[in-house]
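Chapter review: from sequence to fold.
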Amino acid sequence: MAKITAAEVSKLRKATGAGMMDCKKALVEADGDFDKAIKILREKGQKIADKRADRDSAEGAVIAKVNDAKNKGVIVSLNCETDFVGKNDSFVSLARELAELALTTSSKEEFLAADFNGMTVQEKLTEQTGVIGEKIEIGGFKVLEAPFVGSYIHGNKIAALTGLSSEINGAEALAKDISMQVASMGATTLSYKDFDPEYVASETQARIAAIEKENIELGRLGKTLKNVPQFISRSQLTDEVIAKAEENLKAELKAEGKPEQIWDRILPGKLERFISDNTTLDQEQCLLDQNFIKDEKKSVAAYVKSLGDVSVVSFERVALG
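The token string follows.
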């Protein structure tokens, strides 16, 4: 039997990240053969991975990386089973290394098959499952390319990328601000103009029905009823709808006895409230139509427009859980 030295154990540990005792046992079993010991550790990882395949891996670290040219970014979510492992420095460090490698790939499949220090990424994940004793896998994987790309990471739990149409002065700060908006507010599309009319119609019916049902209970309890909107998206607010709303508002002002000469000062605010009340879907899901989190008096679209000849062309978001 070969004599196993501390230096050999340390070398194997550095190569695999496995614990000292696991490395020593693998080297003993491999009779000192370094490559065979690595194989033994990987096989151990595969056995553990097979046993934990049905486990939930909702914790981990989400990392966003942008290349030096600022025209490509990636988000990689390295998932595990517990928050304790997800916050571990070596785990987060591995997630960052993987995200750096991901910048050289264009799909999750290509990434998992890419070389990572002499093994594929998938093999590394299997190995780490054996080392850590938890299910380790890639959860989210997103790639974004644009004339300018910026990113934002929130506590290694949520990450977002934003693609801009051009690299203006202040592009870095703008892309970070919009990425922060994406991370915080969870938009799913750029604008209400992207919605399918059938989806909007179906969602409108569902939301109105839900509010009406809730109002029955609120009424029973003697509480203030919620406003039941006619619409939920700007895509439904045609010129005819806006004109009709303005007509109704004028009738209300007249009924309230408000002098006609001051209507022009009152109507804009009331119309703005009407639009706000009837565009709840846009505010939830459409990035450019949301209120900007750093200045809720303006929309994201208005904020972007105020900074010059630039537009948001795309975005991506990955969150744990």
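Two observations follow directly from the output. Strands lie at 59-66, 72-80, 115-116, 119-120, 137-145, 148-154, 158-164, 291-292, 295-299, 312-319. DSSP finds 13 helices and ten strands in the chain.
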